[in-house]
From TrEMBL:
InterPro entries per UniProt: AAA+_ATPase, ABC_transporter-like_ATP-bd, ABC_transporter-like_CS, ABC_Transporter_VariousFunc, P-loop_NTPase
Gene Ontology terms, MF aspect: ATP binding
Name under which the protein is recorded: ABC transporter ATP-binding protein
Pfam families referenced in this protein's UniProt entry, alphabetically: ABC_tran
Domain of life from the UniProt record: Bacteria
Ranges of residues in domain ABC transporter: 15-241
UniProtKB keywords: ATP-binding, Nucleotide-binding, Transport
Length: 297
């Protein structure tokens, strides 16, 4: 496939980042992240605690000014988003806090006015289905309830781009399933583009079309969910062959007996590194969860 020129990708991608770097108090959190979402894709952003997922999301949406690099929403610079672009986008932070002095119903009625495609019926039905009390102050809801109200707010606006920062963190398993079903439905039926961060690998398998793995501020891996098992594997080399290990690997672990385990990737021609053909070498398939654990450890 020919690479799309960066300028064109910027213009069409609902969300794109180029060379984002950021640090807090002198410590680097993003180290040059490039990421662009295809329209209609569901991208699961995964990474350990503190990997920089929330920082990346906030920088991509223009809610934080990065040290360097740029971000674009619907092709507009994220730091100067116009009202039209804002109305096409919905973002649910990890811990929603805004408008705590309103009741859930008041908040939904209030914000609904700013969205041309607001689905009041959905908001009403989902409040009931998710057993949320419409007349309780947001500030008095539990974190999970508060996050569910915010998810209703985001979904009722029928956004073209939906960004969820760890939506599963405060939800019980039933609510989580329902949310994932709703997200998959929106992506499938309305072509909504979705970016969500998570720690839960099974959520990625259930709903994401693509995954991006952020580790210590760098995107280590980006590929289709179904493709990962084909593209990455664990290469085990006996001690006697460990010197032949490829230099470029996603992770490298030496065992007590001197043997090596490496996470390796097929090259552009679909071949594993040459060391995989050495006598005694072994290639083992990796499930998504194993892959992340191997890389993140
Ligand atoms: N406002 C801030 N001031 C100082 N340090 C911060 C600030 N926000 C985040 N950090 C630090 O930056 C790093 C990345 O944080 P971030 O919240 O982006 O990670 P994350 O991948 O979303 O983590 P988690 O999965 O735990 O939510 C962490 O070490 C965090 O402590």
């Amino acid at each position: 496939m020919n690479a799309v020129p960066k300028e064109i990708a910027q213009a069409v991608a609902p969300l794109a980042a180029h060379g984002l770097t950021h640090s807090y108090e002198g410590s680097s959190v993003l180290r040059g992240v490039d990421l662009a979402l295809e329209p209609g894709s569901v991208l699961g952003l995964i990474g350990r605690n503190g990997a920089g997922k929330s920082t990346l999301i906030r920088a991509m949406l223009g809610l934080l000014q990065p040290l360097s690099g740029s971000a674009f929403v619907f092709g507009e610079p994220a730091l100067q988003l116009g009202d039209d672009a804002k109305a096409r986008l919905a973002y649910v932070p990890q811990q929603p806090e805004a408008l705590a002095w309103l009741t859930a119903q008041q908040m939904l009625d209030y914000v609904g006015r700013f969205y041309p495609r607001w689905d009041e019926g959905f908001a009403h039905r989902t409040l009931e289905r998710w057993k949320l009390q419409p007349n309780k102050l947001l500030g008095k809801l539990s974190p999970g309830e508060r996050q569910r109200v915010d998810l209703i707010r985001a979904l009722a606006s029928q956004p073209e781009l939906l960004v969820l920062d760890e939506p599963a963190a405060a939800l019980d398993p039933v609510a989580r399933r329902e949310l994932l079903r709703e997200v998959a439905l929106r992506a499938g039926e309305s072509g909504t583009t979705v970016l969500f961060s998570t720690h839960i690998v099974s959520d990625l398998e259930r709903v994401a079309s693509e995954i991006a793995f952020l580790h210590e501020g760098r995107l280590l891996l980006r590929c289709g969910v179904d493709e990962t098992k084909e593209r990455y594997a664990r290469l085990w080399l006996p001690a006697a062959k460990s010197a032949a290990a490829p230099a470029q690997t996603l992770s490298r672990r030496r065992h007590d007996d001197g043997s090596l385990s490496l996470v390796v990737e097929r090259d552009a021609q679909g071949r594993w590194p040459e060391a995989a053909d050495l006598p005694g070498a072994r290639i083992d398939a990796l499930g998504l969860e194993d892959l992340f654990v191997e890389i993140a450890e």
